[in-house]
């Protein structure tokens, strides 16, 4: 950082109103920290401000003074990315563009759900079955994104699809089987059969 002999003028108008989305914190671009940590770093920089005491009750007459700058470094590689499409309310309301949104490889019979703790790499999501679909018999739980990302083109085309649940389909769940039936009015209902008692 460049040091100055004369203090520099930095206009800071105090902390934001609670409804303001942006605060005084400035995020740096990712940079490689040579010699110290030898990692890609992203920093959050925020001023530490003191208010000159004035003999008045009015806040807008009080002036600000910068005492210091607080810097918090974060390992850029450990920051999660969200590859799922921006359909949930939280992402849409934040109004911040996600450059990785919609880069997941979930098929139309599935929906994407982000997973956290994967860091800055592909595959931090899982593909859950859409309503009216179920997992194939060989699949135990959702399709993991890191497995889908590593799959070859042929494996991707032939796998990672959910199966449509039709009327009269028996879906085994541990000790129970659920039979999906249609009554005479066309409404779906579920008939639960205990497999342990049926034996």
TrEMBL record:
At the highest ranks, the source species' classification is: Eukaryota, Metazoa, Spiralia, Gnathifera, Rotifera
Q: Which UniProt keywords apply?
A: Cell membrane, G-protein coupled receptor, Glycoprotein, Membrane, Receptor, Signal, Transducer
Q: Which InterPro entries match?
A: GPR158/179, GPR158_179_extracellular
Record Pfam families: GPR158_179_EC (PF22572)
Q: Where does this chain mainly localize?
A: membrane
Q: How does it sit in the membrane?
A: Multi-pass membrane protein
Single GO cellular component term: plasma membrane
What does the UniProt entry say about where the protein is found? Cell membrane
Superkingdom:
Eukaryota
Q: Which family does it belong to?
A: Belongs to the G-protein coupled receptor 3 family.
The segment(s) forming the GPR158/179 extracellular domain are 27-133
- Quote the protein name from its UniProt record: GPR158/179 extracellular domain-containing protein
Molecular function (GO) terms listed? Answer: G protein-coupled receptor activity
């Amino acid at each position: 950082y460049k040091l100055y002999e004369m203090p520099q003028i930095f206009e800071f108008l105090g902390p934001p109103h609670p409804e303001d989305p942006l605060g005084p914190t400035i995020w740096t671009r990712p940079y490689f920290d040579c010699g110290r940590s030898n990692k890609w770093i992203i920093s959050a920089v925020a001023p530490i401000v003191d208010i000159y005491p004035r003999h008045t009750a009015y806040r807008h007459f009080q002036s600000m003074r910068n005492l210091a700058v607080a810097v918090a470094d974060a390992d850029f590689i450990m920051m999660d990315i969200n590859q799922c499409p921006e359909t949930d309310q939280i992402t849409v309301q934040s109004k911040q563009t996600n450059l990785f949104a919609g880069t997941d490889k979930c098929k139309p019979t599935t929906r994407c759900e982000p997973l956290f703790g994967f860091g800055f790499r592909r595959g931090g999501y899982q593909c859950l079955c859409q309503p009216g679909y179920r997992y194939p018999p060989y699949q135990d739980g959702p399709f993991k994104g890191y497995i889908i990302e590593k799959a070859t083109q042929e494996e991707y085309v032939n796998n990672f699809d959910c199966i449509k649940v039709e009327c009269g389909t028996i879906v085994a769940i541990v000790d129970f089987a659920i039979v999906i039936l249609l009554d005479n009015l066309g409404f779906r209902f579920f008939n639960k059969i205990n497999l342990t008692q049926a034996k």
